[in-house]
Amino acid sequence: MEELLKVENLRAGIDGKEILRGINLTVRPGEVHAIMGPNGSGKSTLSGVLAGDPRFTVNGGTATFHGVDLLSLAPEDRSHEGLFLSFQYPVEIPGVTMVNFMRAAINAKRKYFGEQPMSAADFLKMMRQKRAVVELDNKLASRSVNEGFSGGEKKRNEIFQMAVLEPRLSILDETDSGLDIDALRIVAGGVNKLKTSQNATIVITHYQRLLDYIKPDYVHILYKGRIVHTGGPELALELEEKGYDWIKQEADNEQ
Length: 255
Known about the structure:
Layout: E1 5-14, E2 17-27, E3 32-36, H1 43-51, E4 57-65, E5 68-69, H2 75-80, E6 83-86, E7 93-97, H3 98-112, H4 120-133, H5 138-142, E8 144-145, H6 151-165, E9 169-173, H7 181-194, E10 200-204, E11 218-223, E12 226-231, H8 233-242, H9 245-254
Parallel strand pairs: 3-10, 3-11, 6-9, 9-10
Antiparallel strand pairs: 1-2, 1-4, 4-5, 7-8, 11-12
Helix pairs in contact: 6-7
């Protein structure tokens, strides 16, 4: 099967400190990959590097996204090509309504591919359809982006953005952080409804509980900037039971 994302020996860091020390990862269409690991292992750095966060410096390796050199693209072009990053702490954008924000995003993507802007009527019709996917209240869609939203509303809002943009690859960076069980169910339900045989998801999380709702095909353990263990969904259950100490000990013994 074709590869949607292929990362080979990726090394990256921030302020002269290397954090990713040789990441290898292959994601194919239709797959869900979970990336777990202790604090400071490089999980959020990996998502930031793939999305093009300018704070990080790539020191080596490659990342190919559906045949395109991902690392050579500007962050906005990575988005247009179909990469979506859900933030751990979504930002507020006062004075910009969700409707205007999403219409600008959609039309920027259409312009990138040489297409005409979407009409207001077609856009509003699509907004109504996508809102239903994540049970997003109409009032939230007309407010400023994330302004005054609860943690659960912000995360639900991001899954709504994902529904509108229809990315090829979605990276959910600790999207379960701070969510109560109802918000977690709705967010995970939205992610599951948006899954197709053509797209893929990378879920970055500390906890097994999210993986009760979003079933991974593969679970990868990141430790000291490397993927040191890969398995199926049962690996997340083992981590829940044993913690990370056995992984750390195993990885340290191999070095």
